[in-house]
Amino acid sequence: MLTVFGGHGFIGSQYVADYYDHAVGNIASVNTRADYEVHSKDVLYLIQPYSYAEVAGDSNLTLLTRVLDSWRRRSDSKNGVFNFVSSAKVYGNDRTFRHREDFPCKPEGFYSNIRYCAERLLTLYCAAYGLHYRILRVVNAVGANAPGTAEQNVLHFLLNKLAAGETVEVQGNGKFFRDYIHVEDCSRAIEIVMTRGDANSIYNIGNGESQCFVDILEYAVRRLGKGKIVFVPQKAPPLSFSINTDKLKSLGYVPKYTGEALYEVILPCVN
Q1: Quick check: 87 and 117 in contact, CB under 8 A?
Q2: DSSP bridge partners of 201
Q3: What's the average model confidence in pLDDT over 161-176?
Q4: Which residues contact 92 (CB under 8 A, 6 or more apart)?
Q5: SS3 content of the chain, % helix, strand, coil (to 5)
Q6: What is the sign, positive or negative, of the torsion defined by CA atoms of 34, 40, 44, 45?
Q7: Which of 78, 84, 58, 118 minimizes the C-alpha distance to 3?
Q8: Which of 124, 138, 174, 227 has the fewest C-beta atoms lying within 10 Å of its C-beta?
């Protein structure tokens, strides 16, 4: 049994759609933002900072603590695991390293720092009360219906503009690399870690294969038959980012969508 927090978001809704078996009742509750009560010994917590600090009017760490307190009060919590979905961005902006789980975190910016603070709160809380956790650091999750803005998930923001026949600006030559994972693969990876992974451990969730940013956009222009890319001067050094997913793959994870197969399923107005 599992209580899911954040089950209405992009990744969470995919997980619930994939694994909620009403006949078996394997998920005890998919909680709204107003419900902080835990209804099972195991928890999947996917709430992101920008999702609830602004909506609920409370700090993200306060809300996480409320959930942890509810979980701790259960008589069976010591037999369960709190599975916390974080972000690979907590590693920081190192441009040369394929980050492993033991790589020192150097988060930059508000959201990355808040996620890392939440990770530390979780681990120290569990240590204090003899509870168990897993931290799942997810790279950029993508899909045809992914939300995108100029500040958050810029890839989908630009893909939507291309699908509308607009011109998009790319700094420099766009030859930087990011690790993208399709939301269906991400959902499956989360399930694999929760069912096979060690407790009190960190797992990177991604494909471990970086994709060239401009290659995806150029593929979209060809496939959609509209939109245009223009290159503008680089304002800051390009950031290439990837993670090591050997621990995840050791559990049996194999991505379904990579390369052009991944490009195809994230295109808007095609699928």
Answers
A1: no
A2: 134
A3: 91
A4: 105, 106, 107, 108, 112
A5: 40, 20, 40
A6: positive
A7: 84
A8: 124
Cα→Cα distances 25→2, 17, 18, 67, 180, Å: 9, 13, 13, 21, 32
Give the H or E element holding residue 85.
strand 82-87
In 3D, which of 242, 176, 238 has the Cα closest to residue 205?
A: 242
What is the 8-class DSSP label of residue 223? H
What are the structure tokens assigned to 204, written together? 């990177």
Packing angle of the helix pair 213-224, 154-163 (nearest 10 deg): 20
- pLDDT at residue 141 is higher than 80: yes
d(CA 116, CA 110): 10
For residue 122, what are its two tokens? 């979780």
Instruction: Give CA separation, 217 vs 19, 147, 196, 259, in Å.
Output: 32, 17, 36, 13
State pTM to two decimals.
0.92
- How far is the C-alpha of 177 from the C-alpha of 249, rounded, in Å? 21
Task: Tell me which residue of 241, 259, 251, 238 sits closest to 106, measured CA to CA.
Answer: 241
| Cα Rg of the chain, angstroms | 19
Contacts of 223 (CB under 8 A, 6+ apart): 263, 264, 267, 270
Region at 218 (left for phi over 0; alpha for psi -120 to 50; beta for the rest): alpha
Task: Compare 36 and 186 and report the one with higher pLDDT.
Answer: 186
Q: Are strands 228-232 and 167-171 parallel, antiparallel or unpaired?
A: parallel
| Contact assessment for residue 64 and residue 86, using Cβ atoms and an 8 Å cutoff | no
Half-sphere exposure of 141 (CA within 13 A, CB side): 28
